[in-house]
Fold each of these.
Amino acid sequence: MVTSWVNSAERIGSDLHLELTGPGGRRAALIRALREAVRSGRLAPGTRLPPYRSLAADLGVARNTVADAYAELVAEGWLTARQGSGTRVAERAEPLRPAALVPRKAPPRARGPRHDLTQGTPDASSFPRTAWLASYRRALQQAPNEVFGPGDPAGRIELREALTEYLARARGVRTEPGRIVICSGFAHALRLLFGGGVLRGPLAVEAYGLGFHREVLAAAGVRTVPLPLDEHGARVDRLRRERAVLLTPAHQFPTGGPLHAARRAAVIDWARARGALVLEDDYDGEFRYDRKPVGAVQGLDPEHVVHIGSVSKSLSPAVRLGWMVLPERYVDAVLAAKGDREAWASVLDQLSLADFVVSGAYDRHVRRMRQRYRGRRDRLVAALAEHASHVEATGIAAGLHAVLRLPPGTEASAVKAAAWQGIALDGLAAFRHPDTDVPAGDGLVVGYATPSEHAYGPALEALCRALPPP
């Protein structure tokens, strides 16, 4: 015998599902079900149970059956009954529950570094909460009903239209909404392009770059071929039989500096001649300080460049929104790889970002943060000039990090010294492609955007103490 009961919230304040099973008739089954509900914590101490008549009607049993079950559980101490307050679960200092359900104490959390100077993240305390909330509210109030159904794999048209205008104005990207596919960031774009079978390796990459991206590519079975770097950026003249190349042309990561204009033209000529593709990682294109903004390579040839961007540096990595601006011939293949349902980027977040861009709040936030990060960069340079004049900061005309050039053979010891000072940062060698034979020298990659304003000064003091002597 199985009888299910789902009570209404009006009766005891929350829904409860009971199954009356086992031998002994309905009275015995009800007693077992209520005991188990209390023991497991589904009925918390003090919870008021429905009156006899209501529960009997829900279960389809006689009123006396419920009354007898309540009486027995009161006698056993599971329930209490008082005139005027009904029948309730007995109060206990510790609710009864199976031993397997008793939560274990969480292990103590490892103590993090005192100073976070890792690259790649903006100042979390600077997220524009008020403006973002205003955009979210407007987006939610104006959203059509279809927003709350299955999503479009390409992403919401409102966001793709907003990005079309913004990217053309701010980055020189030439596109239309139908050639933009929304994703959750650069790594997700790589997984769609290579893991989804849209592109195949080998893939040429810069000799220094983010190791996580190489791991994503390796997991998709893609072999990466490193291109040497010099003061003009990647040596695109070394491209051979690869069918695609991944570049950070606006601000080489992590060494800094834009790809020289002649090399921009050369890589486009190479792509046209071989029917190849340039993947453009525009990871911090908005942040320029001492030079004019460098436009996107995509503007030179939209049919041979995939422009990939996100808000992880400009807003926050927690927003999980990015985009691919695709050559027309790849749009259908990328959408097929993505699937029929939008499973990665919240539609409400997409609408919020669209409003954030269209309202001008995004531009205002970027301008404010550009000024703040430029001030932090200047403080870093001034601290080095005062306390470690033999250490040069490079790649500082743009972006959210700098490379501190160290005397030969001192990088490993400097990273250890930084750890002793409670600083989290990376050495330049951590970004080196394992197959490259052209080292970029010793250095520390210092993210000056990550700390909050009040923490930045102490972080700089600790950094200067960790640097090697001249």
Amino acid sequence: MSVERVHIAQFFDGQQMQSNKVFTIENTIIVDIDDNVQKYDKKLKGLVAPGFIDLQVNGGGGVLFNRTSTLSGIKKMLLAHAQYGTTAMLPTLITDTVEVMQQAADVIAQAIAKKVPGIIGMHFEGPHLSVAKKGAHSAEFIRPISDQEWQILSRQDLGKVIVTVAPENVLPSDISKMRGLGIQVCLGHTNATYNQAQQAVEAGATGFTHLYNAMSPLQGREPGVVGCALLNDETYCGLIVDGHHVDFASCRLALKAKPQGRVFLVTDAMPPVGTNQHEFAFFDRTVHLQDGKLTSTTGELAGSVLDMASAVRNCVQHVQVSLPEALKMASLYPAKYIGLPAGWGQLVIGSPANFVELNNQQQVISTWIGGAQLF
């Protein structure tokens, strides 16, 4: 039985700032938090916060999940993002063939069964999307839902699952069926009308994938999917706060419109995160990195090189969000959205010992998963 005591000079517990405590970590869990700072094994002097939870990670460490659906591949992705405070993530499969979907699901099931640190489930971003709002997704693979996809989605060995769909191409009854399987259904890559999106919400859709991007905009005579996202208080929105996907003023508008706790940070990250890569192969195209922005040879934005620590920093510096709130957007709120057990996204007795140590500029000093330092 592994027991370790870590002296924490200052930490955010998920609700408030605290200082000068010792975490007792036993078998990956925080089993006690006490004031006895005379006895400890390690001391962390930076600000310790709950580990970041990223629900949309296409790649990292030179790996694109679609092309390297292996245990070693997703471990490389996690290690790349751990450098920036991510302690849990959903590897995200971009629209592809049903065979690639099957292989990716098999790998996630294997990771869940083996309790690979940091892998908590899977996000299927497509293939049931809108060609009109496909973004970087390949139109040739966008298709109606079939029995083969239902067999994959019906699996109960994939951990926490998100599926992004375009409601104009998926029946409300399909959304209800997904919800019955325990799946969180997000609307995204959609050109739906407000009414179509609202019907999907009423059928059980719970979230919106990368708010504002690849969805019908808010207009005076047609509120679109963005209007539906902002009006429905009970739904959640993922937000890419990199300054390229969404203007910082639009980020502020979303936070003003949605109830507190209903907007969480995502990266939509691609292979260059954690590497020196400046381009990579993407289906039949090449994606180039320039000035912090990924652009495909066909002209569209193709994911991001954002990391969660930078997203937190951008919220504080550009979106007028307090540091405690930005930290919640990176940990507590995504944990609540996908239904992780109590204690996730927090640092309390019973929480997993997943945390990040930050300096005064919200840059990562160290990252811990299950009480083990990864970075």
Amino acid sequence: MFDALVLTQQAKVTHASVTQLSEDQLPAGDVVVDVAYSSLNYKDGLAVTGTGKIIRQFPMVPGIDFAGVVSESADPRYQVGDEVILTGWGVGENHWGGMAQKARVNADWLVPMPAGCDAAKAMMIGTAGLTAMLCVQALQRAGVTPDQGDVLVTGASGGVGSVAVTLLASAGYRVVACSGRVEKNGPMLKQLGAAEVIDRAELQQDAKPLEAQRWAGVVDTVGDKILAKALAQIHYGGAAAICGLAGGFALPTTVMPFILRGVSLLGIDSVSCPFEKRQAAWQEVIARLPEQFYQQACQQVSLAQVPEFADKIVKGQVTGRVLVKL
């Protein structure tokens, strides 16, 4: 028997409780993992609170990330004792996820633990860090270099944003972090490498088709009006890597930034990212994140605390990454 956070639904209300399960209750898969750590992402928060329509099949074990040790394997790529990471692939949404002491999954969804990493560090990075790394790589492939000017990170206090700030600063970019909690989170964002922290109110006004050029590049986790404003302010030939919709899925913009300034809009998906690209991103993010990130931008909670922190993350009251110890 093992502990798991199990979501059930009654009268369209989602309930979360720590429950004892047996291994034979786990869903189908060819690898069983003893989970050491999971993490709490914004999507997990929506699932656990029932705020978003993330879960459509109940009961469900949430947790889109986990890291641990293989305890059973029917796949030759993984042996008992191997350390592995899982992020994405609909786990924690359509397939029982990482907020349990055991998980059974498809071997194709796993990534071997990179050198220099362990389960705790892997989940301090998690989907958020992997996504941030993919955003930074996309901007670099698009030709955005440190000498071209400031790079804006929206939703900078969140999981993706805080990692993106750290990665960009460590690569030599001058980073401007946009946050809705400047007084509270500004000092931390500057410790992570932001040269400047601005209030999101600056970017929430309706955008003109084109505005004064401010940003060489953008990492956007928010969407809607903030992304539209940022697009109108990107330098000629600049780019925006977009990966989130914390502020909404709409995009009230025009074609003007794209056809008059040659701006590129780069969509970033980490859920179904192919293995080779995913593995390369993991190796690079481990190599590039400084040790201070793990100390400054992460906090650890127990499985029983997840519902409380899920409510906080949905309300925008969580800073950085939340590590769940199993």
